[in-house]
Amino acid sequence: MDHIYEKVKSFIEDNGDEYYLCEIEDILGVDEETLLEVLKQLKNDNIVTEEHFFETGCVNNRVCIDCFEPMEHEDTELKETPEGDIQHIHVYRCHKCFKKEYY
What sections of the chain are H helices per DSSP? Predict the structure, then answer.
């Protein structure tokens, strides 16, 4: 497991969150359950932070940074910027802890 931890840690440090989880699984040859466990360890070790978000590869799904469960797109809010532009804010909710995140 230490070897897998180091491999995932190195990949995240080099690439951030630019890949879907399913792509990371394929690139590193790691199954989903192991990858999520390693991500939890990396969060505990402050390698993965709130700035990271991971998409599952499924349409409109992300992974909760707290419990690493799927988040589902719940809503899109429109907000006007000070410049008068309209900004789309996407609201996601975790299936497990019900945390809301905005992107």
Answer: 2-15, 21-28, 32-44
